[in-house]
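Illustration 12: SPB1 protein.
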Amino acid sequence: MALKLACEFLCKGGWFITKVFRSRDYQPLLWIFQQFFQKVQATKPQASRNESAEIFVVCQGYQAPDKIDSKFFDPKYAFKDVEVPTKSVSELVSKKKPKAEGYSEGDTTLYHRFTLMDFLKAPNPVDFLSKANEITLGDGELENHSSTTEELRQCCRDIRVLGRKELRALLNWRTKLRRFLAKKLKEQAKELDINLSSGEEEESREEEKKEKMEAKAAAAEEAKEQEEVELALAEMKAEELAELKRKKKKILKEQRKQRERVELKMDLPGVSIADDGDTSMFSLRSIHRTPLLNELSRGDMASADALLEISPGDDDICVSDHDEEDDVSLASDLDPEELLEIEARQRKLEREQR
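Figure caption equivalent — predicted structure in token form:
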């Protein structure tokens, strides 16, 4: 009913989500969903208890057909069990007179006579008896078998007049004869094996030994390859676990630092002022080459200006304005001799600029 309501109101491409309880009708219901939607997925969220039979079905992309058969929404048709009819012995006994329908296709005879071997080789003995009128025994070992009684001989002469009891007796007789033939064939095969020559036996033994040796060698190689594959998989798994542990440790360390900064009122909850854990006022991470660092220590600021032009907006390098002279920032980190050298270098640059 929920699906019927959704098909009435949904636009093309719409979604339909429903909860169902798994039973024998679960698979037919999924098949019906797939006729109306492009993608059908079943999921069980963590909020649902494991022992519960409930499951959620998500249907995406409603196809919006122009015409819908009403049988899709009728449980009698949707969940109908299809059973293949099988014939039994009781069906062979006709209760009513059959309607005259003429001859079957390709069969123009009214009386069908079969041999006993045809009856034993028939794949479906019930159908065979429904078509046969007489079974001829013939002169042989099967006719003189202990299970072949005079009553069964009389039943084989006219099968159409037999009742349920006689038909069951014929089926049991067939089973006994088939077992007798199977046993006889096994004995004949055993006698043929005994009559093999000694040379053939030795050859067969040698071939068996070779096959066993080859099988053992192949099994050893396969076991070795499997062991190598398992070892490689174990190493890969160990590396993945180690990498996951390192990442987890790094994340926990960052979270601990963030909590400490929040407790010390250096940051607000959810807002971090620090940039990737660097809490210093000045950062030289962008200067990753020794020559550039040496030029800066000598007072050559041209490289720093070029670096700022390449990466604008980077807050790692702070350059003071020309109007505001801030000699204290350099004097606090340099020796007096280095400071004099830097001042001389700056005066020389100013003269070149003029």
